[in-house]
Amino acid sequence: MRDDELLTVPDVMARLKLGRSTVYDLIRSRRLPSITIGRCRRIPARAVRDYIANELEAAA
To answer: What Cα–Cα distance (Å) separates residue 41 from each residue in 7, 19, 53, 58?
Structure first.
């Protein structure tokens, strides 16, 4: 996964093994940054990596 890659919500759902509503809740709560291009929501791959790292750090 490249750092500059933009992922769709289904991509993030598959990578994190989460449901659609959970991913949108993470976006809405700003725990997972995203951008909107037209009507499409995109999540930078770096944001997914950072989210995982933050969750691992919080769990430790």
So the answer is: 9, 16, 22, 27
Task: For the chain, give the percent of residues with pLDDT over 70.
Answer: 97
Half-sphere exposure of 14 (CA within 13 A, CB side): 6
- List pLDDT tens digits, range 2-28: 767 999 999 999 999 999 999 999 999
- CA 42 to CA 36: how far, in whole Å? 6
Cβ–Cβ < 8 Å for 45, 6: yes
